[in-house]
């Protein structure tokens, strides 16, 4: 037959559910103060940079070989870190690692979701959950929250009972709103999910190290359908590393290996992550500083006159921006002052990541002017 010239995505035989869509990602703008992607503002300490170089040099000598497919040494160290910080004994058999928690979540949906299956999340929440669902052919159900962004437990239980999803996402602390989910709520949702199906419950703890409260790792005891997902992108200040991991029953670790690509975690990634874990104490020291800055942001934003959602993460959701253009106009005005924050498309609200004290001051100056509090 006749061959037309291909000019764009829609001329290709892409899957129907991808038509007309755009790739996920916040604008990467080159401005003085970037507080839009919940990164850790502190570069890695020089001693760690040296250690990474050392371990990567060693790994380089073996790059002619495939890396450890089962990632045993790194999973062992991650298990030790979780055991030390999580009030729960975690062994290597409970841990799995991949390229960012995004890949962990993708592997979980490839394993427990997929065509003919559905996942539910309570929105607004981390929008990649829905996008990874789409990418894996998993149906998506957008569950409810209260006006104050806490999970509406009664409604959530009803939705789970009625929709019988195969996977339930709970993000705690939640992104972009910052609030943590009480353990009782997680337990009640787990029970609802087991009664309805039973289904897998994924607790996304990407920001847990910044929380006032504890990790939900102890809930793993006796709950084989529960998964806790973690990342080195935030607390370890290593977003560029791409290392996410999960803790769960050993059967879950076995199951995700059915879909993981062989040698998915490069030898360079494994070496770098191991070096970073050697410096856990230093890196968690930065977390303490950031928690202080986060609490300062909450306090000062409230003092200026903004509404702020209680935050257990390294970012703060603030508002409300009513009227003409609402939050997007405010986002632009803050950007005009050299500060990039995040507009997650939640009407009336913006999100700011906790930066260094200087960056946070620049942000606070910008939002003070915005409200006309500066003469
Ligand atoms: N979960 C949540 C809630 C997040 O906010 C993020 C990063 N924005 C991730 C997972 C993914 O992080 P990564 O892939 O870098 O581990």
How is this structure best described in words?
The chain folds into 2 domains: 126 residues, Aspartate Aminotransferase, domain 1; 219 residues, Type I PLP-dependent aspartate aminotransferase-like (Major domain) (Aspartate Aminotransferase, domain 2). The protein is built from 11 helices and 12 strands. 38% of the residues lie in helices and 14% in strands. The strands form 3 sheets. A 7-stranded mixed beta sheet has the order 2-8-7-6-5-3-4, sandwiched between helices. It has a 3-stranded antiparallel beta sheet with strand order 9-10-12. A two-stranded parallel ribbon has the order 1-11. The protein has 375 residues and is an alpha/beta fold. The chain is globular. The longest helix is centred in the last third of the chain and has 25 residues. Bound molecules: 4'-deoxy-4'-aminopyridoxal-5'-phosphate. 4'-deoxy-4'-aminopyridoxal-5'-phosphate binds next to helix 3. This is Histidinol-phosphate aminotransferase. Homodimer. GO terms for molecular function: histidinol-phosphate transaminase activity. It catalyses: L-histidinol phosphate + 2-oxoglutarate = 3-(imidazol-4-yl)-2-oxopropyl phosphate + L-glutamate. Keywords: Amino-acid biosynthesis, Aminotransferase, Histidine biosynthesis, Pyridoxal phosphate, Transferase.
């Amino acid at each position: 037959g006749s061959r037309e010239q291909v000019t764009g995505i829609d001329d290709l035989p892409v899957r129907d559910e991808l038509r007309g869509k755009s790739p996920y990602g916040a604008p990467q703008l080159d401005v003085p103060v970037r507080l839009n992607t919940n990164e850790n503002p502190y570069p890695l300490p020089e001693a760690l940079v040296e250690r990474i170089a050392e371990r990567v040099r060693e790994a380089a000598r073996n790059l002619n070989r495939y890396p450890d497919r089962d990632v045993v040494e790194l999973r062992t160290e991650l298990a030790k870190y979780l055991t030390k910080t999580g009030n729960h004994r975690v062994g290597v058999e409970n841990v799995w690692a991949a390229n960012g928690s995004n890949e962990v979540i993708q592997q979980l949906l490839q394993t427990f979701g997929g065509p003919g299956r559905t996942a539910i999340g309570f929105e607004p929440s981390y929008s990649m959950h829905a996008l990874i669902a789409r990418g894996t052919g998993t149906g998506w159900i957008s569950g409810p929250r209260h006006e104050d962004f806490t999970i509406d437990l009664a409604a959530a239980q009803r939705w789970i009972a009625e929709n019988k999803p195969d996977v339930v996402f709970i993000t705690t602390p939640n992104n972009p709103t910052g609030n943590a989910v009480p353990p009782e709520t997680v337990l009640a949702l787990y029970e609802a999910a087991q009664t309805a199906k039973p289904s897998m419950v994924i607790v996304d703890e990407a920001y847990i190290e910044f929380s006032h409260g504890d990790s939900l790792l102890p809930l793993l005891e006796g709950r084989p359908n529960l998964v806790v997902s973690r990342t080195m992108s935030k607390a370890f200040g290593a977003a560029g590393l791409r290392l996410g991991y999960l803790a769960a029953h050993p059967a879950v670790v076995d199951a995700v290996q059915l879909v993981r690509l062989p040698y998915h975690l490069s030898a360079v990634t494994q070496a770098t992550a191991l070096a970073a874990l050697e410096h856990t104490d230093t890196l968690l020291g930065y977390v303490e500083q950031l928690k202080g800055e986060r609490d300062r942001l909450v306090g000062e934003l409230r003092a200026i006159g903004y509404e702020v959602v209680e935050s257990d993460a390294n970012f703060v959701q603030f508002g409300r921006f009513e009227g003409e253009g609402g939050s997007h106009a405010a986002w632009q005005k803050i950007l005009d002052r050299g500060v990039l924050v995040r507009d997650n498309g939640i009407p009336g609200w913006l999100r700011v990541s906790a930066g260094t004290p200087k960056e946070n001051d620049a942000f606070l100056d910008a939002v003070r002017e915005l409200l006309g509090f500066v003469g």
